[in-house]
Design goal:
The complex is a heteropentamer of chains A (383), B (281), C (366), D (456) and E (248). With 281 residues, chain B is α/β, with parallel strands linked by helices. Chain B contains 11 helices and 10 strands. A 6-stranded mixed β-sheet of chain B has the order 6-7-8-3-9-10, with helices on both faces. Chain B has a 4-stranded antiparallel β-sheet with strand order 2-1-4-5. In chain B, helix 8 links the parallel strand 7 and strand 8. Chain C contains 15 helices and 4 strands. Chain D has a domain of 267 residues. In chain D, strand 1 and strand 2 form a beta hairpin. Classes of the chains: A alpha/beta (383), B alpha/beta (281), C mainly alpha (366), D mainly alpha (456), E alpha/beta (248). Chains C and D meet through helix 5, helix 8, helix 13 and helix 15 of C and helix 6, helix 13, helix 15 and helix 17 of D. The complex binds adenosine-5'-triphosphate (ATP) (2 copies) and magnesium ion (2 copies). One magnesium ion binds next to helix 2 of chain B. Chain C: It holds the Pfam family BPD_transp_2. Chain C: One of its GO terms (cellular component) is plasma membrane.
Chain lengths: 383, 281, 366, 456, 248
């Protein structure tokens, strides 16, 4: 546990981090973990509070995730940033966080199923639910691309299944095929040929870079590469075009826009600390940790239920504005009982009563020649 | 020995042996036109013979004549390509080996097949037929288990007796795989006897057994015939044993029965001498 | 009448065969119907066949080694898949290094783009663009895998040479775990692009698109298979291997240098595994630490279907598995497409039901 | 007697006790594991609730591993059936349970039947799938059977994983589903919760009188407010009882004529047949019984233990873990199976999860290079911290598997018979050496009439 | 008749080809042989008889380096060979035909013989022909898979394979077991001829009467120890030996 805080005289704020650092989402989880622990680094030496933190690895596996979460809870952490994959998040919430009254705030789980958890207000998240993204996708498909037919190719898990469904129900045109594909397969030719079989106006791909690399490689080596594709947040990876080996100019995507007021500050700090670009959900991870810390300071004790009670209070509008750059001051204000509102790196962080974001801004992005992602358009959405 | 054997009344020629079947009494084992092919090789080629009740019948023939294969077909270890095998009147050809053993026809293997990682005791305890405890529920459920324990206690007695007789009681707790070649043959024979059979097919039981013990075992076989009416069919290459103890003797050659009759006749049968004895003695 | 009687006979004696025949007829009939109607274009069908052949050859190539070690050493080597993975990683590390050393730092190249290493599109490895580095990579893949095979044999299997097959099998599971996660230790755990697909020419043959990498694979796989065939047929080594598969104790008593033959077996088996792993990446274009492990069950299916110990069995089994897993997609559409792999396994089980020793079982052809 | 002598005397006595009594052996081992993990909890500054939780986890994982290792031992240790499809049979058990009991309104919908029906149904379904697998098993050599079972296990997993059966409608119009890759999240809650909560599915529903008393006691005496840890510990203890029952059952199976036939089949099936045993029936029965127990283990572990069912929990790796555990314990010995399960669960599964924390607690290494070259490069300059940082912060999970692999190889080379596999446990309902005069005096007084149950 | 209990009484042969002294050997930790002494002179024909489990096969295996060596020495042509591997021992000029499983069933007859000469770079044609001359049936069956041959033919093949390198000493473990009487005689005749051609023979036999009749000298082994050493006929006529080991 990195005992930050130096000689500060304040009390200790305990915050756990639970991320997939190995297994299927290991590559995705490591940068998110970096985002989640960045507040600790920034606060070190700048605040009265001592910050006690611990990182655990879910191994992208619900079982291992449960043990890892228990380790955090047993060590007395009242709030946890995590987990990432929706299956693990739900499992850990139901079996560990909720029974033990610990706050869980996921920076990356977007499954609509999380909204309805019977959670005593313990479970929160900083990215928007995919119920929204499905609508955004549908809107982009019909309006921006102008496609009246579509096919979806979705990774065969909770994320892919539910997002594909939510797109299909929001889409005005015809969905010709919904084709699932397994994670980590060595070829996606057959799935591609099925999705493309009726010549759809647009193909929606829901997945992660790990499978995306293979899928787009298969696509470009077997087809002319002109059909418009739309991908989702999971595939917003600036390295994708160079990994695939194609400019991917026919591909656009939607993702929750990291467009909070503190985004610029966050980006510089992240680059400074880790020497690489912040990836998908890293800013959400920063915000999840930050909100939990603020709520902890406001609660005045390392207690899950007390922190849960303060989550909306410190995040939602009303009071002094706190941003990533003023986090240390924010903690002090929260502890004094001053009313604050956190406006984060990813969004303004405004929670509804289910623990979801009330509003979200999405971006329509495209891949740049020679790597990188550029925002084409911003789409604001509120639930 | 042969003087007191149950086949004493059998006539001079082989036809008389067959007559035993006609006289209304079905012989325990009757093999009719048995065939077994392996791909292109015909190992048994229309063999027909009978084994009379209570006899110690010898089955001899050159290496590769089809003796072991005949045993395998009779006991269900291999499925015959054609022909019939009657045991106590019913056709058993093609039945599962265990079904045949359950009817009382048991065999030993030419190359001893001990259960290597079980103790000698366990090897023998396995043999008795229709043990209650072989039913899963009886072994497990308390009201039945007492009966199983009782039965096991009884079997244990019998097993120890057998071990002592075969002079391998000092090896009782030994893993069967650690026995020497000859000791394994003894275990094989003892185990077959523990099944309490009506008829035994013995495939070269004495090969590799030292002569002193061999004589003792033959005595035992004759005793079992006399006292319990067991029938034996014996494959053996040791002519001294065949001549002294077996009556009648069946000679197989190239998969079929070349001759059968009393040892003396066989000894002097020209075709048999040609095919089998060679220039010996 | 005669026909009827024969038919009845067949139905009674070989019900399995009849079922297989009927099912095959139905499938072929349906396939023809689809091809003649518009359910399936010839090009799509051809695509399936070609894909099946390519993957089948690779499975067969990897299967030869598994089959040899299986019959001669008497155990199913569950680490074989991870030999394949190491072949892929070692070979591609070198191919990358050679292709990009003029422009990039060696470290990132050797780790095949791990961390902040250069991207495949920038390094630009392909058979037409950097043929020499591809060939050098293949040689290293073979050599390196041979090396670890021998090393592992010395350290792991040799001390327990006389143990039963199951003990060795379980030890090989241990080896598999260690090897697989050592790749993660040195490289990474995700799947990474490797080849430069923009520089792989492809040819349209009657609507079937065949790219240069697939052609390369087919050529190399066939050359290696013929080579192994000649080696085992022409030298007394092949006989010694069969003798050892028959009875290792007797081989020792006869004066066959048992350890030497075992070493040769590992050299062959490991080398082919390394080559197969390297070539798998050439066709997929991506590399992942568990690529061999994911293939292993299919390879086992192929080897067992073909009959353990038979080189030709492994090749035929590989082709059958490869084709079955692709051609089944003609019928398994929509959500059912995820059943292509189960179909391959099912086929293996089915074959075992009727030929418990495998197609070439009992006939050692090494 | 000097105190030194006294001590060694005690020690020998204790060792003899361990050799004689399996119960003492298992209890001692468990005590050691409990102490180890309490120590870890202490290092990590856990409060009492945390300590109870860690004990609950030790109990839970030991029990579930022991349970399934016992089931495998029946297949592999006794009958020599080389089943490496364990994960698949577990999956069938837990999926059937979940589909029978999940609420019809849930997503995916289930049949909403009582939990007891689910448990029995799960075991039966696993046994039935076992039957279907056993049919080819009867014809195949051991290693071929292994491949067939692992293939079937993969077919099962891929079927549950497939979106094709995510939800489907039975002929009668009843909707049912596997949930595809997202699995079934609406598994009925752990039955022990019924002891503590008015509504077993919700901790918020209020406590039962028993619950109030026990929670109150812990809160008053230890200051434990996290009642969940007490529920978990209770479940662990319930599982320990299940393990004991299964152990007794299997010990009886082993020490009986039935078990003797199984052993014979393992050695040489033709001989067993030639001694009149209908080996096929023995094999089928055994396979089905073992599969039913695997199904039960699936239900108790992946079902009630984790509250949700996912296909990815049933990858072949799980099967290999179980095999490793059985080998550690010693194939053929039931006590060994329990010990092997305990050793694997605690030392190879749980301990590595706590290890990084302990290491971090002791030394803090900030360096965190993200690739191997960056980690070893600085060594030339005498800096070892980057490498350590790389190992600890980046690659510890991978090294854990490397360690498991190396350990397995070590075991196979040095102790292939496992901890207790060297013990020859004669398959008979009575002591066979007894009754023979020469052997009478040896150890007959030690043998309980029930034979193996307690001294197996 | 001399009952030898210690090495002292064993006659030492100056021209000894194989010389075993105080050999202790066994399997793993299990000791089977205890101070076994044994000599075979150049061209001599020696048999070992004894009850089942006496350690006869173990003695043969020990000479050929197939057991755990525990002490004593084995010299061949005055060179110590204990602790060597079988393929090295073959080079010294010893051939061994095991008691059972002594052919490669899936190899043809010719291939089986080729294996016998594996240690050489190429198979000497004349050696192969010499074996064929000795066992004409093998020449007839050149291409047949050894596993499909009858027991007697397999025994000949095994012997032929051991003769491929023209060894100075041939170890035979129960060569007559399981053979039909004509073949038993035939086999013993062939062994005689091999011996006549100058190859020393060390043979284990249960068919003790026949073996003792033909050999030059014999050892009786009981429970892993030498019990008697004598020329064959003398043993055959010794009433004690007859009673104990030859069945009266
Ligand atoms: N499984 C088999 N496959 C092919 N051929 C076989 C098989 N079993 C036996 N044979 C052949 O069948 C013939 C008869 O063999 P069998 O073992 O019955 O002879 P036998 O009379 O018992 O000889 P022996 O006295 O040597 O034991 C032989 O030619 C043998 O090679
Ligand atoms: N591989 C082995 N492991 C352990 N013990 C063995 C092994 N092989 C043989 N033995 C034991 O060594 C002793 C001598 O066996 P050996 O085979 O040498 O006897 P033998 O004199 O050849 O007897 P037989 O005439 O029956 O073949 C026996 O008690 C046997 O149980
Ligand atoms: Mg025979
Ligand atoms: Mg012997």
């Amino acid at each position: 546990a990195g005992n930050g805080g130096g000689d500060g005289g304040g009390r200790t704020l305990s915050q756990g981090v639970l991320m997939p650092l190995s297994g299927g989402l290991g590559n995705l989880g490591q940068p998110i973990r970096d985002g989640a622990t960045l507040p600790f680094t920034l606060l070190e030496g700048n605040t009265e509070f001592t910050i006690d933190s611990q990182v655990e690895d879910t191994q992208t596996d619900p079982n291992a995730g449960q043990t890892a979460a228990s380790a955090l809870v047993d060590a007395g952490y009242p709030a946890v940033t995590g987990a990432a994959g929706s299956e693990v998040t739900i499992q850990v919430a139901e079996n560990v966080f909720i029974p033990n009254s610990v706050v869980g705030c996921s920076p990356a789980s977007t499954s609509p199923a999380i909204t309805d958890l019977d959670d005593n207000n313990l479970i929160w998240r900083t990215p928007p639910t995919d119920a929204l993204q499905g609508e955004v996708l549908a809107q982009v498909a019909s309006e921006n691309i102008g496609a009246s037919t579509a096919a979806t190719l979705y990774v065969n898990n909770s994320y892919g299944q539910l997002l594909s469904e939510s797109f299909a129900s929001a889409y005005g045109g015809t969905v010709q095929n919904q084709v699932s594909f397994p994670k980590g397969a060595s070829s996606y030719s057959s799935q591609l040929s099925q999705a493309l079989s009726d010549d759809p106006g647009v193909v929606i791909v829901i997945g992660y870079p790990e499978s995306g690399v293979q899928l787009f490689r298969d696509f470009y080596s077997e087809y002319a590469g002109e059909t418009p594709f739309l991908v989702t947040d999971g595939l917003r990876d600036s390295a994708l075009p160079s990994d695939v080996g194609n400019a991917m100019s026919n591909v656009q995507g939607t993702a929750p826009l990291a467009a909070g007021p503190g985004n610029e500050f966050f980006t510089t700090e992240y680059q400074d600390a880790y020497d690489s670009e912040p990836g998908v959900f890293t800013s959400q991870a920063f915000d999840a940790t930050a909100v939990c810390l603020l709520a902890n300071a406001a609660a005045g004790e390392n207690s899950g239920p007390a922190i849960a009670e303060q989550m909306q209070a410190v995040a939602n509008p009303g009071g002094e504005e706190v941003t990533p750059s003023t986090l240390a001051d924010g903690l002090a204000m929260a502890a004094e009982g001053t009313e604050i509102q956190y406006k984060g790196a990813s969004s303004a962080v405004d929670f509804d009563d289910n623990g979801d974001l009330k509003a979200a801004t999405y971006e329509l992005f495209g891949f740049q020649e020679g790597g990188g992602v550029e925002t084409i358009e911003e789409i604001a959405f509120s639930a | 020995m042969s003087s007191e054997s149950a086949v004493d009344g059998v006539g001079e020629d082989s036809a008389a042996i067959n007559a035993a079947g006609d006289s209304g009494e079905e012989p325990p084992l009757r093999v009719e036109n048995l065939r077994k092919e392996f791909g292109g090789i015909t190992a048994v080629d229309g063999a027909s013979f009978e084994v009379a009740d209570g006899s110690l019948t010898g089955l001899i023939g050159p290496n590769g004549a089809g003796k072991s294969t005949t045993f395998n077909c009779i006991t269900g270890v291999q499925e015959p390509t054609g022909g019939a095998v009657y045991f106590n009147g019913s056709d058993i050809a093609g039945r599962a080996p265990n079904a045949i053993v359950n009817r009382g026809l048991v065999r030993t293997f030419q190359i001893a097949r001990e259960l290597a990682e079980m103790t000698v005791l366990e090897n023998l305890m396995l043999a008795p037929q229709r043990q209650q405890g072989e039913a899963l529920y009886r072994s497990v459920l308390p009201p039945f288990r007492d009966g199983v324990i009782e039965e096991e206690t009884e079997l244990r007695e019998a097993v120890w007796e057998s071990l002592e007789f075969f002079e391998i009681d000092h090896l009782a707790e030994e893993q069967a795989g650690n026995l020497s070649g000859g000791q394994r043959k003894l275990l094989e024979l003892a185990r077959a006897l523990m099944t309490d059979p009506d008829m035994l097919l013995l495939d070269e039981p004495f090969a590799g057994v030292n002569p002193t013990l061999e004589a003792k075992l033959l005595d035992r076989i004759n005793q079992l015939r006399a006292e319990e009416g067991l029938t034996f069919l014996l494959v053996e290459h040791d002519m001294d044993i065949i001549m002294e103890h077996c009556d009648p003797v069946i000679v197989m050659h190239q998969g079929h029965v070349l001759a059968e009759g009393r040892p003396g006749e066989i000894r002097n049968n020209e075709r048999v001498v040609d095919a089998y004895f060679g220039e010996q003695r | 009448m005669e026909l009827y009687a024969r038919g009845r006979h067949l139905l009674r004696d070989q019900p399995g065969l009849v079922v297989v025949a009927v099912a095959t007829l139905l499938l072929v009939g349906d396939l023809l119907g689809k091809l003649l109607g518009d359910g399936l274009t010839a090009a799509r069908f051809g695509g399936f066949v070609w894909d099946g052949l390519v993957i089948g050859l690779l499975i067969g190539l990897a299967g030869i080694g598994l089959s040899l070690t299986y019959s001669i050493l008497g155990f199913a080597n569950f680490a074989h898949g991870d030999y394949i993975s190491w072949g892929a990683f070692s070979g591609w590390a070198v191919a990358y290094l050679l292709a990009g050393i003029d422009r990039y730092a060696a470290g990132g190249l050797l780790l095949i783009g791990a961390g902040d290493g250069p991207a495949p599109g920038d390094v630009g490895v392909s058979i037409t663009n950097t043929p020499l580095s591809i060939v050098a990579g293949l040689v290293v893949a073979v050599g390196f895998t041979v090396g670890i095979s021998l090393l592992i044999d010395r350290a792991v299997y040799r001390p327990i040479r006389d143990a039963d097959g199951i003990t060795l099998l379980i030890a090989s599971i241990g080896v598999a775990f260690a090897l697989r996660y050592l790749i993660v230790f040195f490289f990474y755990s995700g799947r990474q692009g490797v080849t430069d697909i923009s520089r792989v020419p492809s040819y349209d043959i009657g609507g079937v698109v065949i790219n240069a990498h697939e052609l390369t694979i087919v050529v190399i796989a066939l050359v290696l298979m013929v080579g192994v065939h000649l080696l085992l047929q022409r030298s007394k080594l092949g006989k010694a291997m069969r003798a050892m598969a028959d009875n290792r104790d007797l081989a020792q008593v006869t004066g066959i240098p048992v350890e030497g033959v075992i070493r040769t077996t590992w050299i062959l088996g490991g080398g082919l595994a390394g080559a197969a792993g390297y070539l798998v990446v050439l066709t997929q274009g991506t590399i992942a630490y568990d690529l061999g492990w994911l293939l292993l069950l299919l390879i086992f299916a192929a080897v067992i279907m073909g009959g353990i110990g038979s080189v030709y069995g492994a090749i035929v089994g590989g082709l059958v598995i490869g084709l079955a897993s692709r051609l089944s997609l003609i019928w398994l559409t929509g959500d059912l497409s995820s059943f292509a792999e189960p179909v391959a396994f099912g086929l293996m089980i089915f074959v075992l039901l009727f030929r418990p020793e495998g197609i070439f079982g009992g006939v050692s052809t090494a | 007697m000097s105190s030194d002598q006294f001590q060694t005397g005690r020690l020998t006595q204790f060792r003899e006790l361990l050799e004689r009594s399996d119960a003492a052996l298992v209890l001692t081992a468990m005590a050691a594991f409990y102490l180890l993990f309490l120590g870890i909890g202490a290092i990590l500054n856990y409060d009492v609730a945390g300590l109870i939780s860690i004990l609950g986890q030790v109990t839970f994982f030991t029990a579930v591993y022991a349970l399934i290792v016992l089931a495998l031992n029946l297949h592999w240790g006794y009958a020599g059936l080389f089943n490496i499809g364990i994960a698949g049979f577990m999956a069938v058990g837990v999926y059937t349970m979940a589909m029978l009991t999940a609420p019809p309104t849930g997503s995916p919908p289930g049949l909403g039947l009582p939990v007891a029906v689910g448990i029995v149904g799960g075991m039966l379904a696993a046994a039935l799938v076992g039957l279907v697998t056993a049919l080819p098993a009867l014809r195949l050599r051991a290693d071929y059977l292994a491949i067939v079972t692992v293939a079937i296990s993969e077919i099962i997993r891929l079927t549950y994983n497939s979106p094709a059966f995510s939800t489907f409608t039975l002929p009668g119009g009843i909707a049912l589903g596997t949930g595809g890759a997202s699995g079934i999240g609406t598994v009925p809650s752990n039955p022990v919760q019924a002891i503590y909560y008015v509504d077993p599915s919700s901790a918020a529903s209020g406590t039962t009188p028993i619950g109030a008393a026990i929670f109150g006691f812990f809160e008053a005496v230890f200051g434990v407010v996290r009642s969940a840890v007490i529920v978990d510990l209770t479940y662990g203890l319930v599982l320990a009882v299940v393990v004991f029952l299964v152990y007794t059952l299997l010990a009886r199976v082993g020490n009986s004529p039935f078990g003797r036939v199984l052993k014979a089949i393992r050695e040489d099936e033709v001989v067993a047949k030639s001694l009149g045993k209908d080996t096929n029936r023995f094999k089928i029965k055994t396979f089905m019984l073992g599969c039913a127990l695997m199904g039960l283990a699936g239900v108790l572990w992946q079902g009630f233990g984790t509250g949700a069912v996912y296909p990815q929990a049933f990858r072949p790796e799980l099967t290999f873990y179980i095999f490793i555990a059985v080998i550690i314990g010693g194939a053929g010995s039931n006590t060994g199976s329990v010990l092997g399960g305990a050793v694997f669960a605690n030392l190879l599964f749980l301990l590595p999860q706590y290890l990084p924390n302990i290491i971090e607690q002791t030394f803090s290494i900030q360096a965190d290079p993200n690739n191997f070259i960056a980690a070893v490069g600085p060594i030339a300059a005498g800096e070892i911290a980057p490498l350590l940082g790389y190992i600890l912060n980046q690659r510890l999970p991978a090294l854990r598997f490397v360690f498991v692999g190396v350990l397995l190889v070590y075991l196979m080379q040095n102790r292939p018979e496992g901890l207790l596999g060297h013990r020859t446990e004669t398959a008979a309902a009575v002591n066979l050496s007894e009754g023979h005069t020469a052997a009478e005096q040896t150890g007959s007084d030690l043998t309980a009439p029930e034979g193996g149950v307690d001294d197996e | 008749m001399s009952e030898t209990t210690a090495t002292t009484e064993v006659a030492t042969y100056d021209d000894s080809l194989l010389c075993v002294r105080s050999l202790d050997a066994g399997y793993g930790d299990l000791q089977i042989l205890e101070t076994v002494d044994l000599d075979v002179a150049d061209g001599e024909y020696v048999t070992i008889v004894g009850p089942n489990g006496a350690g006869k096969s173990t003695t043969m295996k020990s000479v050929f380096g197939l057991t755990t060596y525990m002490g004593g020495q084995i010299e061949f042509n005055d060179e110590p060979i204990h602790g060597l591997r079988p393929e090295e021992i073959i080079h010294h000029g010893i051939g061994y035909v095991p008691q059972s499983d002594n052919v490669f069933p899936s190899l043809s007859v010719t291939e089986n013989l080729e294996m016998g000469a594996y240690v050489l770079d190429s198979v000497p044609d004349d050696a192969m022909q010499a074996v064929y001359d000795r066992f004409p049936i093998l020449e007839e069956r050149q291409g047949q898979k050894a596993g499909t041959m009858s027991g007697g033919q397999q025994q000949m093949l095994a012997m032929g394979r051991a003769l491929m390198l023209d060894p100075d000493l041939l170890l035979l473990d129960e060569p007559s077991a399981g053979l039909a009487p004509d073949l038993v005689d035939d086999m013993f005749d062939r062994i005689d001829r091999i011996n006549d051609d100058g190859t020393a023979i060390l043979m284990v036999e249960q068919n003790a009467k026949e073996a003792l009749k033909r050999c030059d000298r014999s050892y009786v082994l009981v429970q892993g120890k030498n019990r008697y050493e004598e020329d064959g006929d003398a043993l055959l006529n010794d009433p004690a030996v007859r009673k104990q080991f030859l069945g009266g």
